[in-house]
Amino acid sequence: MDQGTVMTRRRYPAGFSAVLAVAAVVVLWWHFGPAQLGGPTSYIIVNGNSMEPGMERGDLALVRRAASYETGDVVTYRHPSVGPVIHRVIGTEGARLVLQGDNNDFVDGYRPAADEVIGELWFHVPRVGSWLARLHGPLSAAALLALAFGGLAVGTGGVRRARRHGRRLHNRDGRGPMNAPGKAWQDAALVLACAAVAFAALLAAAYLRSPQRAEQVELPYTQSGVFTYEAAASGSGVYDSGAATTGQPVYSALSDEVVVRFAYTVSGEAEQLAGVAGAYRLRAELSDRNGWVRTFDLGEGRFDGAAFEASAALRLSSLREAVAAFETTTGVRNQEYQVAIAPDVTATGTIGGEALELAFAPRLELILDPFQLRVAPARSQGEQPMAPEAEGSVMAVHRVADRLPLPLYQPTVVAARWTGLAGLGVSLATLGGVLLVLFRSAPERGPEGMAGLVRVHSVPTSRSRTIDVASFADLVRVAEKEGCAILQQTRPDYEACFVQAGEVTYRFEAAPQGPGRAGEHRGAA
Fold first, then answer.
1. Rounded mean pLDDT for each run of 10 residues along the chain, 525 residues in total
2. Cis link prior to 460 (omega < 30° from 0)?
3. What is the pTM of this model?
């Protein structure tokens, strides 16, 4: 570039590049900002073949919200159990949409409402989604950050090497290198502007999202029971305690009455169970292996609370009378019969504010033979016949703190609002201060647009050797190398710039500005 062009190039105000960068970021955000951060676009990775041949597995679909959706539109909706589904609208059912995949021969069973639709397909990029899916993990994100900082370091090193080899970064008017403090202030302004945009996006995303969201929560509970029994056997030395207790056989020759007890408890997470009340019925069932059953009612009652205990007396003589009547009438003879102690428990209440309906019907299996009543062996390993349990759960909708789905960190909406507000305020305030410094520290410009020159009336050259350089850019390089100021001497018919370095004066003389000579310069090699 000739010196005339350099001297007449327009110089933009300090901070102009930062403003341009912010404007570019805003335009890009307006079109491609992710919906998770308040932007208009959602990015969906196609994970199936239901939309072939138009879209295939691994494609990246960009969808945007629309005021309404019509038949023929390709939309993405959020299925309550499957997640995002991208299909085509083929009709409506009241306020809900009917959808079907282009490659499916069946209609979607779920009918989403308009507020369940994420957006309408804007365009899609083949095979990009499968590549992006690999970047979801924290290791991939860390690798990207390392690559970004590595690129920044390489770029900075390249600039420094360029300066060492004489290639310079010019300021906006092309008049020599920008001074280091000014460049640092401009870099700071650009970083602060980008930070302000980022915090503004975070703030917008946080305020577009409710602080709480409805979430289905499983509320587990456990019903448990404990069977015990006891039969007095006075006057015998068969039992250490003088009575048959839980787990021991009850001999017909020693005992007739067996006291059976059943303790019931329903438990859940602390302070979630409330208002539990119900009824129970306790009975004994006498049966054989062929299906004959005779039932004996042992008692019933009601309870209020999460636990109760019931007891009843079972007479072995009553069981044997029923067996004798059965065998006499039918002629069937069995070596042993089954006896089951069977409580039936029903109750209602609430758990975590949700309605709770309870039903518990365990069985203690016993065996009756001509000599004794004993506990039946466990049917499977680990079974606890004396302490049965049953687990259940209730699905409840709770309001929980919502979070922003950022790639590496998911802050709560409330925390994101405060962070965005504080960060935006600090960034804008600091950016304002930096721009003020930039505008106030803008270098004074000479009569021909030269910036950063020291104007003098005369330059003493009698004691120094004078070297004429070929261009102003060469003079700037000399000033950079020697660390000296550029002196400018201007007269009506003469203009020159000098750099005094020890006993040598480097000079660049501009040609007189006359008719037909505008933009010419004179110098000697």
1. 37 57 72 74 87 89 90 90 88 91 90 90 83 55 46 45 42 44 69 83 80 78 95 82 91 93 89 88 95 94 95 94 94 94 95 88 94 89 87 80 74 85 86 77 47 70 77 87 86 85 86 47 40
2. no
3. 0.46
CA terminus-to-terminus distance, the chain: 18
The length of the chain, given as a count of residues: 525
CA proximity to 441, closest of 53, 14, 7: 14
Q: Which two tokens stand for residue 367?
A: 């065996």
Q: Do 487 and 475 meet the contact criterion of CB atoms below 8 Å apart?
A: no
Q: Report whether 61 contacts 73 (CB < 8 A).
A: no
Task: Report pLDDT for 47.
Answer: 85
Close Cβ partners of 117 (under 8 Å, ≥ 6 residues apart): 65, 69, 75, 76, 77, 97
**Domains of the chain by range and CATH?**
21-133 (2.10.109.10), 219-400 (2.60.40), 454-522 (no CATH)
Peptide bond into 220 cis (omega under 30): no
Q: Which two tokens stand for residue 190?
A: 């650009």
Return the number of other C-beta atoms located less than 10 Å from residue 377's C-beta: 9
**DSSP state string for 308-322:** EEEEEEEEHHHHHHH
Determine contact, residues 363/174, Cβ cutoff 8 Å. no
Q: Dump the DSSP string for 88-152.
A: EEEEEETTEEEEE-TT-SS--S---BGGGEEEEEEEEETTHHHHHHTT-SHHHHHHHHHHHHHHH
What distance in Å separates the CA atoms of residue 437 and residue 348, rounded to the nearest whole number? 73
Q: ∠ CA(198), CA(201), CA(202), 5° rounding?
A: 85
Max CA pair span of the chain: 148
Query: How does 257-275 read in b/e, with b if 16+ C-beta sit within 10 Å?
Result: ebebbbebebebeeebbee
Provide the 3-class DSSP secondary structure of residue 334: coil
User: What is the three-class DSSP state of 196?
Assistant: helix
Quick one: tokens of 102? 């282009």
Distance CA 40, CA 38 (A): 7
Tokens 């208002």, residue?
275
Tally the C-alpha atoms within 13 A of residue 506's C-alpha that lie toward its C-beta: 21
Work out the angle between the directed axes of helices 16-32 and 180-207 (0-180°, nearest 10).
30
Beta bridge partners of 465: 504
